[in-house]
Amino acid sequence: MTTDELVEHTGVRRRAALAAVGDLRAAALVVDDDGTYRLDGEAMRAAARDAAEVEIPMDPVIGFGMTDDERVVLARFFSGRVLNEIPSQRAKQLVVLQRLVLEFDPGRRYTEFEVNEVLGTFHPDWSTLRRGMVDEGLLDRESAAGGNLYWRSGGRVTDLPPD
User: Fold this and answer.
1) For residue 95, how many other CB atoms are within 10 A of its CB?
2) How many separate helices (H) and strands (E) can be counted in the chain?
C-alpha cells in the first residue's frame, strides 16, 4: 500500500501512519518499493519465532504475599502476570488459586461477570479457575435473582505491596 492507502484503510492520521511504517522499516519488517510498502513475510515469521522463544519471568507482584516455596511454584506457571497453564497437580493448583483469590477484596460481593473479568486477565479459562476457587473454599457463591454472587471465604489476607 501507499501512504495514502494506509491512511484511508486504517483511519489514522498521515503522520501516525508514516511513524508506524518507519518503525516497521527500522525493524526490517516492511520493504519500500518506490513509495509502496509491503510486509516482508519471512522477516515477520522470523520475528514471531524470535519473540516466541523469549521467556518472560513472573512479575514480582504475582509473588507478593506468598512464601518462597509458593513463589517457586508460581514462577513455573506464570509469565509476567499471565497464567500460562492451570496446574493439574492439586497442591500446585491450590497455590495458584490462593494467589488469584488475593485479587478479591474480603467482604465485597462480586457478580459472576466481575469474577470472570478478574480471572480472565490471568487466563482465558476463567470458569475452571472460578470453579476451583469455589471447590477449595476460597470463594463462596450464592444464587441471586440477577445471577450468582461471589465473595471471598478463604485464603490469606495481605497488605498491598509497597510502592
Assistant:
1) 22
2) 8, 7
For residues 139, 143, 146, 149, the Cα torsion angle rounded to the nearest 10 degrees is: -10
Residues above pLDDT 70, as percent of the chain? 95
Q: What is the largest CA-CA distance in the chain?
A: 65
The H or E element spanning position 106 is none
Task: Inform me whether the pLDDT recorded for 98 exceeds 60.
Answer: yes
The label of the residue with cell 514462577 reads 75
Which cell numbers hold the place of 36?
Answer: 509502496
Nearest-angstrom CA–CA distance, 8 and 17: 10
Q: Give the DSSP letter of residue 80.
A: B
Q: Which residue has the cell 509473588?
A: 63
What is the model's pTM? 0.65
Task: Please count the residues of the chain.
Answer: 163
**Which one-letter DSSP state was computed for residue 58?**
B
3-class secondary-structure state, position 87? coil
pLDDT at 18 > cutoff 90: no
- pLDDT on residue 51: 73
Mean pLDDT over the full length of the chain: 89
Rounded Cα distance between 103 and 156, Å, is: 11
